[in-house]
Amino acid sequence: MNIVIVGPGAIGSLWAYKLHQAGHKVSLWGTKQNQQWMLAADDSPEILFSYNQPQTLIDADLLLITVKAWQVEAAITPLQPHVNKDAILLFMHNGMGAVDNIVELIFEYPVVIATTTHGALKVDAHHVKHTGIGQTQLGAFNEKGSQCTFLVDVLNHALPTVSWNSNIRFALWNKLAINCAINPLTAIHQCLNGALAEEKFRPTLDAVIDELVCVMQAEEIPVDRNQLTTTIDNVIRATAANKSSMHQDIFYRRQTEIDFITGYLVRKAQQHGIEVPANSELYKQIQLLEKNGKHHD
Ligand code: KPL
């Protein structure tokens, strides 16, 4: 397939490399001024990719869009007029609501959403490290997207395991719940994910989870409070040595994904008339940290 990776950050670069190795014609689209870009993954040799070449958009069968949620609209708006209407748009990012914000722009395309638990780290501009083996779930965002289940084979061949979830909203909400619990707290306290297992965080985590359960139920997402608590505790343990993405964003004074994580939850709660004071407080604190560009060392 002719594949364009839009936003070759850590996860996008990993997919670019793996899809190239699997035999696809892969190009990159990003914010640099270059026409070519060298990439290596782990200890494998560097590969030269074409970069920001308009013809690759015209020829694309698949656009894999791996920019952050808050960058989706700005990334897609200038590209969309050049992309063939048969090309599949596959979005992969943390959080929810970003694709809903651009439905007008993309309704004619087959649109697929992905959520992944692979870990990737950009060691430098040209090297990506696969730091954690995970799973990827795909699901349709629109009717045309539901015709794209063959993507499971394409992607699974490149970077397993990939599965199709006919209710991708369930998977996205579960990932959102994990991110609502872990990301803001680790960002505020500038601590490793594992620190959230300490007793002092239990009351806040419990309050965040209680509110998540209420909103998920209102959204008709199957959820069990004890099971969700166990899932979150397991992720805290499994990623104990990680700095969460929001922890890093605050540390490096970058914009965070809070509007598409806790912000999304708070907006959904408002629509249902549900009070979510614990999450609202975390939302407020992250917005303040973002505004002040403050960080702890
Ligand atoms: O997705 C993550 C993130 O940091 O954004 C978790 C699961 C919390 C792992 O760090």
Write up this protein.
This protein has about 300 residues and is of the alpha/beta class. The protein has two domains: about 1-165, 3-Layer(aba) Sandwich (Rossmann fold), CATH 3.40.50; about 170-290, N-(1-d-carboxylethyl)-l-norvaline Dehydrogenase, domain 2. About 40% of the residues lie in helices and about 20% in strands. The chain has an eleven-stranded mixed β-sheet. The longest helix is centred in the middle third of the chain and has 22 residues, at about 170-190. The protein is globular, with a radius of gyration of 19 Å. The structure holds ketopantoate. Ketopantoate binds near residues 239 and 245. It catalyses: (R)-pantoate + NADP(+) = 2-dehydropantoate + NADPH + H(+). Catalyzes the NADPH-dependent reduction of ketopantoate into pantoic acid.
Q: CATH superfamily name of the largest domain?
A: NAD(P)-binding Rossmann-like Domain
| Ligand kinds | ketopantoate
Tell me the overall shape.
Answer: globular
Find the structural class using helix and strand composition: alpha/beta
CATH class of the largest domain: Alpha Beta
* Cα distance spanning the termini: 45 Å
User: Can you tell me the residue ranges where pLDDT is under 50 for at least 5 consecutive residues?
Assistant: none
In terms of DSSP E residues, the strand content is: 15-25%
Q: What is the overall pLDDT average?
A: 96
Pathway: Cofactor biosynthesis; (R)-pantothenate biosynthesis; (R)-pantoate from 3-methyl-2-oxobutanoate: step 2/2
EC number: 1.1.1.169
Domain Ketopantoate reductase N-terminal: 3-142
Catalytic activity: (R)-pantoate + NADP(+) = 2-dehydropantoate + NADPH + H(+)
